[in-house]
Amino acid sequence: MKPVYKQVNPTDLFDKRKKRLTQLIIFIYILLLFEGAMRKWVFPSQGRILYFIRDPFVLLAYFLAFRYSLWPKPNFVFLLGILLGGMGALLGLFQILFSEQAPLFVFYGLRNYFLYLPLPFLMERVLSKESLKKIGKWTLYLAIPMLPLCFFQVISPPTSPINQGFGNDPETTYANLGVYGEIQRASGTFTAGLHLFLASSLAIFMAFWIHKTLKRPIEKILLPISGIALFLTILISGSRMAFFSCGIALIFCLIAGYQAGFIKTTTTFIFYLLVVSVIAAFLANTLFSPIIEAMIQRWTGASEYEGGFLAIERIGADLVRFIENMDFVPFWGYGIGSGSNAYGILGNELAVYAEDDWSRHIVDFGPFLGLLYLFYRQLLLFYVGFKCWQSTRKLHDPFPLCLFGFLCPVLFNGQISGQGTLNGYNWLFIGFCLVASKMTFQEKQGHCSAIPANLTQKESPYYGSSRVNLP
Question: CA-based, 20 to 30 A from 335: which of 77, 108, 457, 465?
Fold first, then answer.
């Protein structure tokens, strides 16, 4: 008797495969959010291994994409990144054979630079806008418990488990940098990178608030609660980078609101922001007074040698230091991975201390390939930014440009090749930006759902078009 095979609808099979990859990508993002918590409080003795916990799932996503034929048609930016990865691999092989660079650091460096590079383009293919908005909602909900966690970290001693973790020796404990006096710096569920969570959550919150896309009653209640928790966490974080990153994200979000046509809701938010600022000033002088005073003391002291309150001299030096390094770095570089944080932590002598990422590219790759990678970062920044700007304008959706407001400083000169959490946030949010800015078939046809409710018929870009029927 011949076996009977059930016929499978190709469309259903395709959707099922996309859903499987979507779930895998969401899991990678969850690992990014809780990797630090696992390293500090769950498996403290396995911290160095957990640093790479996302990598096997990224490789699995690539494997499934090849197996399911779900890789997108490569564009110029994607192909250029793959070409750079191939050149980096050849350079790494040369450095191992002729420069006596340890293979372990070469592979580690190549991982930091290129392992996650294809992921955003895969995300653009398989991740839907609905899934992205669900990710955004749950990210905001996480901001609610993040507030009490950060508050207790700030007021607890640096040796308490909530700050240094449950490790028993210096290699498995985490030092809190502190703010000033007995006030500690909040880290949340991260070992380092709380400012990334805060700035990205602010961008998501602003997009939802401006567009008013959350319809369920529970969502309408949780949205302002998560926003209040988010602003209070920023206030007590003790991190200048959190204020700086959130400030840039806020500016982009306001521009996105006006660009998308939501003038009323954007202006209303500015009013609420002023109200929240007054409340924050009251809390800063009452409940959070010791924390705010410690932050002022630290920022005042740091500004004395960083060029003022906004650290103008430090930022300017970080943007030009790579030029100075090109004068004495060998053409083939000192070795891929030699400029990373791990290289010095493991007891190796750094040929050049590359604190900023642009200098790190020159140290790792040498002047030629280092400049190519630096150029690629700026090209990718322009590519993603242009797509987000166009999508916000055409679809009247602030979400793409809001997300780009968070991504912009990270991709521009963040330490994406030296710090693991920054690396993950950079590549995942490039993917989120590409997903948010892609157009569905209905949107390409001028579907009326892309038109904000507060636009009149004559203000609509589709006025007079037979493709839509406006009331």
Answer: 77
